[in-house]
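Weekly structure sync, notes
Attendees: PL (lead), two postdocs, one rotation student
Agenda item 3: pending single-chain targets
PL asked that the sequence for the first pending target be pasted directly into the notes so everyone works from the same version. It is reproduced below exactly as submitted, 179 residues in total.
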Amino acid sequence: MFLHVAPPNPLSRQYSRQVNAWVFPLFEQNWRLFAPDPESVNRQISARTMHTTADGGLRVSGWFDLSGVDNSAVKHDAFPSHTAQNMLRRAWSSYLETHGGDDRPRSERALMMQKYLTDIAADRIAERRGGTFESVQLRVITVPIAASAQGPGPGSSAAAPKPVETRYLPWWKVASRGN
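Predicted structure, written out during the meeting:
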């Protein structure tokens, strides 16, 4: 941790790859606690699985709402953990930062974030749905939040609402789950 938070120096530069692999994503730091940046969109992150059957066919599951499970857990817990509230959301925002719009990893950190996001999805599906699968695909539906719930005030011009965006990520192999 010292090499991560210390000012740049020859030692931290030499071992930056190893330090970053250990620090991210579990100990990532940001200033949002002191200068919050409220969400301007709602995201529904869903996942589905694919399994190769004994006869060589492919079986694809229906979509499983990962963010809905998170939202429900937070809503029904008087003291939700930081993990319950933010793990999936932060994994997705880190994925966006490292992959951009084309879903191509451009660094070791990008590969790590892709695996992290995939593992979250695979673990949650295996835990709640069960079944056997070898691949996971994510779908992210982004719904913009209106600037004001009451509408524009007098004399202001209303901006056209932004459209809902749906993004399908590639199928990713995962360690075989299920029996």
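Discussion points:
- The chain has a mean pLDDT of 83.
- The radius of gyration is 20 Å.
Action: rotation student to compare against the earlier draft before next sync.
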